[in-house]
Amino acid sequence: MAYTLSPASLSAFMECPRCFWRYQNEGFRKPQSSFNPSLPSGMDRVIKLYFDSYRGKRKVPPELASLKGVKLFNDVTLLEEWRSNGKNKGIRWTNEDGNTLMGIVDDVLAKKDKLIVLDYKTKGFSLGEDCHERYQHQLDIYTFLLQQNGYGIDDAAYLLFYRPKEVKENGVVLFYTDLVEVKVSVDNAKRLFEDAIETLDAKIIPEASKKCGFCKKADSKKK
Q: Would you identify the CATH topology of the domain 4-222?
Protein backbone atom coordinates (compact mmCIF):
# COMPACT_ATOMS: atom_id res chain seq x y z
CA MET A 1 0.00 0.00 0.00
CA ALA A 2 1.29 3.47 -0.91
CA TYR A 3 0.70 6.44 1.38
CA THR A 4 0.43 10.19 0.91
CA LEU A 5 1.75 12.15 3.89
CA SER A 6 1.85 15.85 4.69
CA PRO A 7 3.37 18.01 7.44
CA ALA A 8 0.11 17.64 9.39
CA SER A 9 0.15 13.84 9.19
CA LEU A 10 3.83 13.74 10.13
CA SER A 11 3.02 15.95 13.13
CA ALA A 12 0.44 13.34 14.10
CA PHE A 13 3.13 10.66 13.75
CA MET A 14 5.41 12.56 16.13
CA GLU A 15 2.57 13.17 18.59
CA CYS A 16 1.46 9.52 18.76
CA PRO A 17 2.59 6.72 16.42
CA ARG A 18 -0.39 4.56 17.37
CA CYS A 19 -3.03 7.19 16.53
CA PHE A 20 -1.13 7.98 13.31
CA TRP A 21 -1.02 4.30 12.31
CA ARG A 22 -4.72 3.79 13.05
CA TYR A 23 -5.74 6.80 11.00
CA GLN A 24 -3.61 5.87 7.99
CA ASN A 25 -4.53 2.17 8.00
CA GLU A 26 -8.00 2.10 9.58
CA GLY A 27 -9.37 5.60 8.95
CA PHE A 28 -9.75 6.11 12.70
CA ARG A 29 -9.95 9.71 13.89
CA LYS A 30 -9.59 10.50 17.55
CA PRO A 31 -12.09 13.05 18.90
CA GLN A 32 -11.10 16.68 18.49
CA SER A 33 -10.84 18.65 21.73
CA SER A 34 -11.84 21.95 20.16
CA PHE A 35 -13.05 23.62 16.98
CA ASN A 36 -10.58 25.19 14.60
CA PRO A 37 -11.12 28.97 14.47
CA SER A 38 -11.75 30.43 11.02
CA LEU A 39 -9.89 33.72 11.61
CA PRO A 40 -6.38 32.34 10.86
CA SER A 41 -7.64 30.96 7.54
CA GLY A 42 -9.15 34.33 6.67
CA MET A 43 -5.92 36.10 7.59
CA ASP A 44 -3.94 33.64 5.48
CA ARG A 45 -6.13 34.42 2.47
CA VAL A 46 -5.85 38.21 2.72
CA ILE A 47 -2.08 38.08 3.37
CA LYS A 48 -1.65 36.04 0.18
CA LEU A 49 -3.64 38.65 -1.75
CA TYR A 50 -1.52 41.38 -0.21
CA PHE A 51 1.75 39.66 -1.20
CA ASP A 52 0.40 38.92 -4.67
CA SER A 53 -0.29 42.62 -5.18
CA TYR A 54 3.45 43.26 -4.71
CA ARG A 55 4.30 40.28 -6.89
CA GLY A 56 2.31 41.87 -9.72
CA LYS A 57 4.36 45.04 -9.34
CA ARG A 58 7.65 43.09 -9.18
CA LYS A 59 8.29 44.56 -5.75
CA VAL A 60 8.92 43.20 -2.26
CA PRO A 61 6.56 44.19 0.58
CA PRO A 62 8.06 46.25 3.43
CA GLU A 63 7.85 43.29 5.82
CA LEU A 64 10.75 41.76 3.87
CA ALA A 65 12.84 44.94 3.62
CA SER A 66 15.55 43.46 5.85
CA LEU A 67 16.27 40.66 3.36
CA LYS A 68 18.87 41.55 0.76
CA GLY A 69 18.87 40.21 -2.79
CA VAL A 70 15.50 38.51 -2.34
CA LYS A 71 12.48 38.65 -4.68
CA LEU A 72 9.02 37.13 -4.60
CA PHE A 73 8.81 33.96 -6.71
CA ASN A 74 7.24 35.20 -9.94
CA ASP A 75 5.78 32.02 -11.50
CA VAL A 76 2.19 32.76 -10.41
CA THR A 77 0.70 29.68 -12.09
CA LEU A 78 3.09 27.30 -10.37
CA LEU A 79 2.75 29.07 -7.04
CA GLU A 80 -1.04 28.74 -7.20
CA GLU A 81 -0.60 24.99 -7.73
CA TRP A 82 1.76 24.76 -4.75
CA ARG A 83 -0.75 26.68 -2.63
CA SER A 84 -3.71 24.47 -3.54
CA ASN A 85 -4.96 21.50 -1.52
CA GLY A 86 -6.91 20.09 -4.48
CA LYS A 87 -6.36 16.60 -5.88
CA ASN A 88 -2.75 16.14 -7.02
CA LYS A 89 -2.04 19.77 -6.12
CA GLY A 90 0.43 21.27 -3.68
CA ILE A 91 4.12 20.56 -4.11
CA ARG A 92 4.77 16.79 -4.23
CA TRP A 93 7.45 14.16 -4.36
CA THR A 94 6.96 10.41 -4.70
CA ASN A 95 9.65 7.92 -3.64
CA GLU A 96 10.59 4.75 -5.50
CA ASP A 97 7.99 2.75 -3.55
CA GLY A 98 5.13 5.03 -4.59
CA ASN A 99 4.77 6.85 -1.26
CA THR A 100 4.13 10.58 -1.63
CA LEU A 101 5.13 13.53 0.51
CA MET A 102 3.20 16.71 -0.18
CA GLY A 103 2.92 20.21 1.22
CA ILE A 104 0.96 23.41 0.66
CA VAL A 105 3.15 26.51 0.84
CA ASP A 106 2.09 30.06 1.67
CA ASP A 107 4.77 31.73 -0.41
CA VAL A 108 8.20 31.29 -1.94
CA LEU A 109 11.09 33.71 -2.27
CA ALA A 110 13.84 33.67 -4.89
CA LYS A 111 17.47 34.58 -4.25
CA LYS A 112 19.62 34.19 -7.37
CA ASP A 113 19.24 30.52 -8.32
CA LYS A 114 17.78 29.38 -4.98
CA LEU A 115 14.22 29.23 -3.63
CA ILE A 116 13.31 29.99 -0.02
CA VAL A 117 10.13 29.04 1.83
CA LEU A 118 8.09 31.83 3.44
CA ASP A 119 5.24 30.90 5.77
CA TYR A 120 2.74 33.33 7.29
CA LYS A 121 1.57 32.90 10.89
CA THR A 122 -0.84 34.81 13.13
CA LYS A 123 -0.28 35.11 16.88
CA GLY A 124 -2.17 36.82 19.65
CA PHE A 125 0.87 37.44 21.83
CA SER A 126 4.57 38.35 21.77
CA LEU A 127 7.01 35.80 20.40
CA GLY A 128 9.36 33.76 22.53
CA GLU A 129 12.85 32.66 21.51
CA ASP A 130 11.52 29.20 20.67
CA CYS A 131 8.56 30.48 18.61
CA HIS A 132 9.83 28.70 15.50
CA GLU A 133 10.21 25.23 17.02
CA ARG A 134 6.68 23.98 16.43
CA TYR A 135 7.03 24.88 12.74
CA GLN A 136 10.53 23.46 12.22
CA HIS A 137 9.49 20.17 10.60
CA GLN A 138 7.00 22.00 8.37
CA LEU A 139 9.70 24.29 6.97
CA ASP A 140 12.13 21.37 6.65
CA ILE A 141 9.55 19.44 4.61
CA TYR A 142 8.67 22.33 2.31
CA THR A 143 12.36 22.98 1.60
CA PHE A 144 12.97 19.27 1.00
CA LEU A 145 10.08 19.18 -1.48
CA LEU A 146 11.51 22.13 -3.42
CA GLN A 147 14.85 20.32 -3.59
CA GLN A 148 13.25 17.07 -4.76
CA ASN A 149 11.47 18.99 -7.51
CA GLY A 150 14.79 20.14 -8.90
CA TYR A 151 15.16 23.61 -7.35
CA GLY A 152 18.19 25.04 -5.66
CA ILE A 153 17.50 25.69 -1.97
CA ASP A 154 18.85 27.91 0.77
CA ASP A 155 19.76 26.67 4.25
CA ALA A 156 17.11 28.92 5.79
CA ALA A 157 13.38 29.57 5.57
CA TYR A 158 11.31 32.40 7.04
CA LEU A 159 8.28 32.73 9.29
CA LEU A 160 6.37 36.01 9.06
CA PHE A 161 4.24 36.54 12.16
CA TYR A 162 1.33 38.99 12.32
CA ARG A 163 0.29 40.06 15.85
CA PRO A 164 -2.65 42.39 16.63
CA LYS A 165 -1.61 45.83 17.85
CA GLU A 166 -4.77 47.94 18.07
CA VAL A 167 -8.13 48.66 16.48
CA LYS A 168 -8.70 52.03 14.83
CA GLU A 169 -11.92 53.65 13.71
CA ASN A 170 -14.20 51.75 11.34
CA GLY A 171 -12.77 48.41 12.44
CA VAL A 172 -9.30 48.90 10.97
CA VAL A 173 -6.95 46.50 12.79
CA LEU A 174 -3.23 47.27 12.95
CA PHE A 175 -0.67 44.48 13.32
CA TYR A 176 2.89 44.09 14.48
CA THR A 177 5.01 41.98 12.14
CA ASP A 178 7.98 39.78 13.06
CA LEU A 179 10.17 38.12 10.45
CA VAL A 180 12.00 35.10 11.88
CA GLU A 181 14.76 33.22 10.08
CA VAL A 182 14.78 29.47 10.65
CA LYS A 183 17.65 27.18 9.67
CA VAL A 184 16.27 24.17 7.83
CA SER A 185 17.41 20.59 7.33
CA VAL A 186 16.30 18.52 4.33
CA ASP A 187 17.96 15.50 5.94
CA ASN A 188 15.63 15.79 8.94
CA ALA A 189 12.61 16.00 6.62
CA LYS A 190 13.68 12.91 4.68
CA ARG A 191 14.38 10.97 7.89
CA LEU A 192 10.99 11.86 9.37
CA PHE A 193 9.17 10.77 6.21
CA GLU A 194 11.10 7.50 6.04
CA ASP A 195 10.46 6.74 9.73
CA ALA A 196 6.73 7.32 9.27
CA ILE A 197 6.57 5.08 6.19
CA GLU A 198 8.57 2.37 7.98
CA THR A 199 6.06 2.48 10.85
CA LEU A 200 3.14 2.12 8.45
CA ASP A 201 4.78 -0.65 6.42
CA ALA A 202 5.39 -2.72 9.55
CA LYS A 203 1.63 -3.50 9.60
CA ILE A 204 1.85 -3.79 13.39
CA ILE A 205 0.17 -1.19 15.56
CA PRO A 206 3.02 0.70 17.26
CA GLU A 207 3.23 1.69 20.90
CA ALA A 208 1.31 4.80 21.88
CA SER A 209 3.12 7.94 22.90
CA LYS A 210 3.36 8.28 26.68
CA LYS A 211 2.02 11.82 26.24
CA CYS A 212 -1.09 10.81 24.27
CA GLY A 213 -4.04 11.49 26.55
CA PHE A 214 -6.47 9.72 24.22
CA CYS A 215 -4.51 6.45 24.25
CA LYS A 216 -4.00 6.66 28.02
CA LYS A 217 -7.74 6.99 28.52
CA ALA A 218 -8.52 4.21 26.04
CA ASP A 219 -5.99 1.84 27.68
CA SER A 220 -7.31 2.57 31.18
CA LYS A 221 -10.84 1.62 30.09
CA LYS A 222 -9.58 -1.78 28.93
CA LYS A 223 -8.19 -2.61 32.34
A: Lambda Exonuclease; Chain A (3.90.320)
